[in-house]
Amino acid sequence: MFSKNNNEKKLNEMSTLIGEETIFKGVLDVNSSIRIDGQIIGEVNCQGDVTIGKTGQVENDLTARNLFIAGSIKGNVKVEGKIHIYDSGSLNGRAEMDTIIIEENGRFHGESIMNGEKLEKSDENVVPIDEESPSSNE
Question: What separation in angstroms does the CA of 96 have from each of 34, 108, 123?
Answer without folding.
Answer: 19, 13, 18
